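Putative electron-transfer flavoprotein /FAD-dependent / fixCX-like protein
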Amino acid sequence: MESYDVAIIGGGSAGLAALKQLSNLGKQAILLEAGKQVGTKNISGGILYSKKPKTGRVYNVEDVYGPEFLKDAPVERKITQYMLHSTSRNKVFTMNLTAAHEYQANFGYSVLLNRLNAWFARHAGESAERQGGGIVSGVHVRSLSWQGDKTVVETDELEPFEAKAVIAADGVNSEVAEITGSRPKFTPEQLYQGVKVVVKLPEEIIEQRFGIGPDEGAAHLFAGDVTLNHIGGGFLYTNRDTLSVGAVYHYDSLMDRPAEPYTLVNALLKNPMVAEFVKDEVAIKEEIDKNLPKEEQLRVRFAVSKLIKTWNELRDVWYSPAARKKLVEAGKYKTEEEIKARLDSVQNELANKYHTKFVTDYVELEYSAKLVPDGKRCAMKKPYFKNVLFVGDAAGRGVFIGPRIEGLNVGIDDAVRAANAVARAIDRNNFGPQYMGEYYSQLIEESPYTRDMKEIDKDYVKIFLDAARDVPKDIIGQRYGMVFRLMSSGTLRGLAVGFANILGYDKLLPLVESEDTYVQVPVELAEKMGRPIQATYEPTLPTVAQRVARLKYDDDRISHIKVLDSKSQFMKKMVTLCPTSCYSMEGGDVTLQHEACIECGTCAKETEWRHPRGEKGVIYQYG
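Structure:
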């Protein structure tokens, strides 16, 4: 039987960071990833932060990958604007929270995980191979068992092998956690459901529309009527030449009043401010004359499709300085003006010869969803089992404090701490829970992110108070008015936060995370203080079936999900809450068609839920 020092399960940013850190320390490790390529199963909101806390230290992405990360990693845009919008119909009230975004941060980049995790995998994999390890993709771990002090790892694709230590980085629906019984499945009260679409928009149009430079980016958060009366909100992040637009909601709020996840994204896209942010020029094919001979109809259809493809490609190039320069340097065009002339020529041919219409609309590229753990509620108190260490989402760890949402950087920090604990165990040849597991727990407790999951930071609170200083106190209402006034006093704020931390998050959360906070107060702010925004068009919103049809799958005839009780109230709600409508009712029973599944795990609580077999299931192009 093959034997390795360490097996890492899961090829997301946390698992890859663990692999890279172990190889940095000269240790052998192998990483198993279910996707055909690393990055095809990963989804993020998302901003990747590098932090500099006031006390303690965190391990940032550049600590793991070195200066090469800052030099050439395929991040999207450095976020330099961070805005919070309260919405009510066509009125929007905006607060600038850039100071909160920059608080204790070196930087925050918008990211798309398909390309970023592929970059991580290349660097981590090359480093690991030098130590006798590496990355094996297309492999799904089926079970773990123990023979003495070693773990036997069984997969659907490979022969069993042994590992002295295991790092579980297999996400919020961790199968390793279920196999080992180290924690129960997370409940709706402990989770958020996130749904996202990637929207196409040319590079320089993004910069003009959001008032940012080539090396800048913007993040916009939304609360108010866009939430459809749920606890949570919307987000829009600028990428290089796309936008990430989505909604993140308390899962228990959705369970209380089930709503189709795509309707929450649609509500955001229909908001006049967001509609204006995402709009673009779109080519619409004219109906082909049915009186033409069949051969001529096919010829016209092919010609129009080819020209529209050329028009889209040239338009993307025209609005990208780097792409324009590359085409000229490659000799395909003599000057940039020649590119524009060709673009205009194609557009004229489409309009005049084929009667193609050019309209204002928006272009969706990809639809995705995932569950996100709320570290305040579900971080594992003991993030290990025997010789298995849990990191990131698998350990239920993430920072969610109002508009502060951090997961990628938390997972990377966890991964480095796990790698350090494993390296120490290798050096001492001691992988017992009292040695390796307890040491990892100690390292996790020392993390500033763990403190953030437990305590309120009074300096962070002050940033919000400063941003809201112009908000009339009567809008906030009696429920919050006294707290607001108390916190506004520099003398009393420290005492108030200290008292709040003694009470603990569990006592405060029902007050802070409520419909008042996410819906009613933002709506009133928008109504009384907001500015009206008029949309110049009505966005054409795809159906969920159309969104699923755009996704790429390697279908598996064997379902990775088994319904345990087809009559339970939870499963009946899945008919509404599944992001791709995999569930339906037949008589009194809930039935499953798994082929459209995007592996978010929304249904995992009351199903036998597994990740698909290696290389099977959804294949994200953006992530």
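The CA atoms of residues 476 and 521 lie 6 Å apart.
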